[in-house]
Amino acid sequence: MRVLVTGGAGYIGSVVTAELLGAGHQVTVLDDLSTGHADAVPEGAEFVRTSITEAHDVLAAGRFDAVLHFAAKSLVAESVVKPELYWQNNVVGSFALLESMRRHGVRKMVFSSTAATYGEPETTPIPESSPTRPTNPYGAGKLAIDEMLTSYAVAHGLAAVSLRYFNVAGARITPDGMLGERHATETHLIPIALQVAAGLRPQLQVNGVHYPTPDGSCVRDYIHVLDLADAHLRAIEWTREHSEGHLICNLGSGGGSSVREVIDSVRRVTGKPTPAVDAPNRPGDPAVLIASNAKAAAELGWRPTRGLDEMVADAWTFLQTRQPSESAG
Ligand SMILES: NC(=O)c1ccc[n+]([C@@H]2O[C@H](COP(=O)([O-])OP(=O)(O)OC[C@H]3O[C@@H](n4cnc5c(N)ncnc54)[C@H](O)[C@@H]3O)[C@@H](O)[C@H]2O)c1
Ligand SMILES: O=c1ccn([C@@H]2O[C@H](COP(=O)(O)OP(=O)(O)O[C@H]3O[C@H](CO)[C@@H](O)[C@H](O)[C@H]3O)[C@@H](O)[C@H]2O)c(=O)[nH]1
């Protein structure tokens, strides 16, 4: 298929682009490089540097079959202090993209949604039928985009899949090159812990040690970026097989790891001491977020295959290929 990938210069979008090319799809990446890197766009993909609000010319020229929409701001804490940035960039931007697609007859989309659409869960693991009560503007905006897709599917014959990622980690390591997480402002646990292991940061904070969990630290559901990419290839097939409709699926392992278990994995994999200190709760952090992945299995035939140590090991290999000045942040 001819696929437009928005956000394809970012972490997840670049990995999925590489896998799409490997599967024989033709890919154009559209990215404004606000948090992405031009050199992350895999060889073999065309690259257009622009915003999703300016996608009409690319869509007019491209005769695309589908859009994979990764482009977004995605820092939860930033969304709390700068909500306007998130409503503008993510929600208004996605609306403009959808309208451009409608104008140019592109009726298939796979969208990067998030576990943050659920907010504080009522049940664990979280099924897609759970109430959606996001606790920050990032999650609220992603939920608004999911709603947009539902309404366009009903009214305008869109076939869309929203994939609600839980905590994405790991890297794509191949003889041809490596793609991984390279955020100027890094907030994610695994890359931060690995930067500590590498000596790029003195220590790591465990954000909250009195949660109602076995060891007191927060539990999250970590998923390897390559398992995530596999789900995207399957989601594109779903849009090929359905002329309209909106499928929403969680993408997680179905199990959880605490912050302390992640730090133990980093110590085990790297063999480095990785000092960690107890710290206050991070505002807005739910104690436990674990996905039910039964729907993704039933609808897409998807099952994750890579565990926590593999995610940590691949992210460690990736970090060690970067210059220290690029890695700390
Ligand atoms: N990383 C995670 O754990 C996680 C979890 C849930 C959902 N997500 C979602 O997955 C997607 C990808 O996340 P990521 O971790 O790869 O982030 P990232 O910041 O590495 O990638 C996002 C990319 O989008 C681009 N972009 C942002 N706004 C744009 C705009 N208006 N026009 C064009 N390009 C724009 C950025 O330059 C960047 O290359 C995001 O939508 C994010 O919300 C990520
Ligand atoms: O230095 C750190 C960094 C993080 N944490 C904790 O580690 C856990 C995981 O944090 P992080 O890696 O920042 O991920 P989340 O906050 O769970 O958010 C990710 O996962 C969500 C879905 O679960 C997505 O919506 C978000 O986009 C994505 O950033 C949380 O309890 C954090 O408080 C620490 O203790 N110390």
From TrEMBL:
InterPro entries: Epimerase_deHydtase (IPR001509), NAD(P)-bd_dom_sf (IPR036291), UDP_G4E (IPR005886). Pathway: Carbohydrate metabolism; galactose metabolism. The keyword Transferase does not apply. Residues 3-248 form the NAD-dependent epimerase/dehydratase domain. One of its GO terms (molecular function) is UDP-glucose 4-epimerase activity. Keywords: Carbohydrate metabolism, Isomerase, NAD. The keyword Phosphoprotein does not apply. Its EC number is 5.1.3.2. Its cofactor is NAD(+). It catalyses: UDP-alpha-D-glucose = UDP-alpha-D-galactose. Homodimer. NCBIfam families: galE (TIGR01179). Belongs to the NAD(P)-dependent epimerase/dehydratase family. This is UDP-glucose 4-epimerase. It comes from Jatrophihabitans lederbergiae. The gene is galE.
